[in-house]
Amino acid sequence: MLPLYLIDAFTAEPFAGNPAAVCLLDGERPDRWLQAVATEMNQAETAFLLRSKNGFDLRWFTPASEVDLCGHATLASAHFLWEEGYLRYGEAARFQTRSGLLTATRDAQWITLDFPATPPEACEVPPQLLPSLGLSGVTVLRSRFDYFVVLEDPAPLHALRPDARLLSEVATRGVIVTTPSDRPEADFLSRFFAPGIKVDEDPVTGSAHCALAPYWGARLGKASLIGYQASARGGTVKVELAGDRVLLGGKAVTTVKGSLLSEAGSFPRRGSPR
Fold first, then answer.
1. Which of 27, 162, 172, 206 sees the fewest Cβ atoms within 10 Å?
2. What CATH number is associated with residue 168?
3. Mean pLDDT for each 10-residue chunk of the chain (274 residues)?
4. What is the model's pLDDT at position 129?
C-alpha cells in the first residue's frame, strides 16, 4: 500500500486553503497510472513523491494533465514529509521537478518554498480572454505560465464569474486576476482560473505568486509582501523577492490519512482493455 494523504495548503485551519493529494511512491510508475490516480483524486493537483539520491523527485498532475510548477502541492508535500518523519524537523526538503530544484524549509510557524520568479510582461491579448471574464479596459500581461489581469478595484475581483467554456479556449495554463487589497493584513488580492486544465477556480495558487510577487513588489516598492487569494476557501501567501527567485511562505494542515491499495499499483492490468 502507498501512503495517500489529503492536505490543505496555505492555511492554518482545516477545510480552507487549497487541498492537495500527496502520494509517496515505492518506485517508478507509468505516466498513465499517475494521471489515472490524479483523475481519481479529482483535486486541483495530486503530488507524487519518489525518494531519490539527493532528496525526492516530485511531479504534479491535475485531473487532466501534468503541470510544470505547483506551489500548494509542493507545500503539502513538504508538510507530509516532516509530519510523517521522512525528514527530520530541521532538514530541508529538496525536490527535483520539471522546473528544476525546488527547496522547502520549516520554522515553528511557516513552511517556506524557494521558487523561480515568473514576472509578467506585456503581451498580445487573446480575443476570448476579456469577454470570458466579463471585463474590458484593463491591463493584461503574461507570465511564463499564465495571463495576468490587473484591476484597480477589488469589487469586480470579488464579483468575477468567468465563462469557463470560453476561457478554456484560451491557450494558457490559467489566468491570474489581481487587485490592490481591501484587507488590512494583505498587500494585494488575487484569484486564479484554469478551466483548460479542468480547474475552474483554484482556491490558492502558490505558483501564481511567482508572478504576483515581482509585479506588486515593483509597484509597491516592497521586497516582502502578503498576498490573499480571495476564493471561496481563501488562503494567505507570504512572498519575499530574492533576485530571480521568490520565497513563498505558507502553512498546511493534514485532513485525511489513507493508503492507495497495492492492487491498484499495476495499472494497466495484463489483459485489460486499452
1. 27
2. 3.10.310.10
3. 96 94 96 96 96 96 94 97 94 96 92 96 97 97 97 97 97 97 97 94 95 98 97 95 96 96 57 40
4. 98
Among positive and negative, which fits the CA dihedral 152, 112, 76, 207?
Answer: positive
If you compute the radius of gyration of the chain from its CA atoms, what whole number of angstroms results?
A: 18
Short-list 61, 63, 21, 22, CA closest to 42: 63
Catalogue the active-site residues: 45
Cα 37 from Cα 35, distance rounded (Å):
5
Coil, helix or strand for 220?
Answer: helix
Listed in sequence order, the residues at least 6 apart from 42 whose beta carbon sits closer than 8 Å to its beta carbon are 63
Residue that has been written with the C-alpha cell 492555511 in this structure:
11
126 and 149 share one domain: yes
Look up the domain containing 213 and give its range: 121-247
Q: What is the pLDDT of residue 271?
A: 41
- The confidence score (pLDDT) of residue 99 equals 93
Question: Which helix (DSSP H) or strand (DSSP E) does residue 129 occupy?
Answer: helix 129-133
- In the numeric block, the cell 524537523 is attached to 89
